[in-house]
Amino acid sequence: MKKLKLFIGILIGFVILSCSSDDDNGNQQPTVAGELIVNGQTYDLIKGFIIPNYTGTDPNYNPRRFYFILTNGDVTLNNNDFVYSNSITQLIDFNMYSSISSSGSVENTSYTVYDPTDTNFDFDSAYIDHSGINTNVVIQNNQYVSSDSISSDDLEGQATISENNGIYTISFSFSNSQNTISGTFTGSLTDLNYQY
Fold first, then answer.
1. Max Cα separation, the chain?
2. Pairing of strands 90-97, 127-140
3. CA distance 74 to 84
4. What is the pTM of this model?
5. What is d(CA 38, CA 28) in angstroms, rounded to the nearest whole number?
6. What is the DSSP letter of 114?
7. Are 106 and 161 spatial neighbours (Cβ–Cβ below 8 Å)?
8. pLDDT tens digit string along 166-187?
9. What is the rounded CA–CA span in Å between residue 114 and residue 116?
C-alpha cells in the first residue's frame, strides 16, 4: 500500500511539473535581439528582415542597393508590398548602398548617412540613402497607419554592418540638434523575397 501511495505521489508530481512547464513555454517572451534608443527611450528590437542586393542583369535595378528592417514583429511582402504584423510598435528601416567595389553584396563596413548639402559626398563608398526611425507605430489590418517618425535625411551618422555565418551584427547612431538615435541588433535577417 505504501508503494502504491508513493507511486501515485510521484505520478502527481510529474503531472504538476509537466503542466507548469507547458504554461511557462506558452508565456515565453520573444528573445530580444537588440535595441533602438530614441532620445533616451529604449525600445526592443526582436526581428530583422532584408531585401538583398539585386544580382541579375536588368539595368533598371542597382546591384549596390539593399534594404533591411529591424522591428519587434513580423514583416512579409505580398506582391512586393509590405505586410506588417498588427503587434509592431517600433521599427527602423534602412535603404543602403554598398560601395562600388562590393556591388551585389551586403558589405561588412560602416555606411555613412548621405548628406545632400555635401557637394563632395563620396557616392562610390558605402552609404545610407535613407532610414526611417519609427516609434509608437500603429498598424491596422497589417498596413502601416501612423507613427512618431524621424528621418535620417535630417540627421548625421552611420551604421556598421558585419555578417558571419548568417548572423548580422548591426549598430547605428544618428543625431542632430533635436534628436539622438542609436541602437544595435545581433541575429539573422529573414529574406523578404522581393520579386525583381
1. 91
2. antiparallel
3. 6
4. 0.84
5. 26
6. P
7. yes
8. 999 999 999 999 999 999 999 9
9. 6
Give CA–CA dist 142/85, Å, rounded.
5
Chain mean position to CA 146: 18
* Selection from 46, 21, 40, 53 nearest residue 185 by Cα: 46
In tens, the pLDDT along 104-128 reads 999 999 999 999 889 999 999 999 9
Quick count: other Cβ atoms within 10 Å of Cβ 145? Answer: 10
Task: Tell me the mean pLDDT in the region 138-146.
Answer: 96
Helix (H) or strand (E) holding 32: none
Amino acid at position 133, single letter = I
β-pair partners for 132: 93, 151
Alpha-helix residue ranges (DSSP H) falling in the chain: 2-26
Return the C-alpha cell found at 57.
542583369
What is the Cα–Cα distance from 70 to 182, expressed in whole angstroms? 13
Distance CA 87, CA 46 (A): 12
